[in-house]
Amino acid sequence: MMKKIVFVILFFCFSGSAFSQINEIGFFLGGSNYIGDIGRTNYIYPNSFAVGGIYKWNMHPHFSLRGTYIYSKLSGNDSESNNSFRKVRGLNFTNDIHEMAVGIEYHFFKYNLDKIGHTKTPYMFVEAGAVNYGTLENGRTFNFTMPVGAGYKTKLAQGIGIGLEVGFRYTFKDDIDSYPADLNSANVQINPNNNDWYVFSGITLVFAFGREGCYTGSF
């Protein structure tokens, strides 16, 4: 058993792709918008501030494991919609959310903030997470979410990276848009089968730390 463990460690240390163990930690700053039954129908239209933290472990030139926490308010107002029916209906809501997610990030080009020529790349990511928010019926509650998005990142200074990122979040319920009390009145029509989406778009600023792996000559 010990020989197998040693073999696995040596494989990761000396493989041709030369895995890296550089860590990155930093901030996400940007905006959010809601996509659902109330307000605008634009896919990307930030109307609230979003802020959070991000951690990445660059385990491979093309892959990073990442974890994020983001806080924001979500809001929707039918009066701002480009849909005539919604304008007449006149509903609105505001909610605040806390999201935590973990996942994997794929770099289209080799990436390492400490390697010349490997310091900029477009990327895409897929995560799984949980979001906490308020509802009219149950107070604050948790829901699962699936963030999927893309971005572009580059080196800002030695050991510092900056990026632009957009991520779409699918939820498995239709209750983020905390409706007014007259939701069930005859003149209000809401689709209960249309689960909520929301979007975070903004910049990431990260600081690299930690040692590289056993061998990074071909990174």
Task: Walk me through what this model shows.
With 219 residues, the chain is mostly beta strands. It has helices at residues 2-14, 84-89; strands at residues 22-35, 48-60, 63-77, 92-107, 120-135, 139-157, 160-171, 197-209. β6 and β7 (160-171) form a beta hairpin. It is elongated.
Relevant terms:
mainly beta; Porin
Mean pLDDT over all positions: 84
What CATH architecture would you give? Beta Barrel
Task: Give the total of beta strands.
Answer: 8
Number of helices: 2
Largest sheet: 8 strands, antiparallel, barrel
The CATH topology, please?
Answer: Porin
CATH class group: Mainly Beta
State the oligomer.
Answer: single chain
Biggest sheet: strand arrangement = 1-2-3-4-5-6-7-8
Which overall shape is indicated by the principal axes computed on the Cα atoms? elongated
Strand content: over 45%
Specify Rg, calculated over alpha carbons. Answer: 21 Å
Structural class: mainly beta
Number of domains: 1
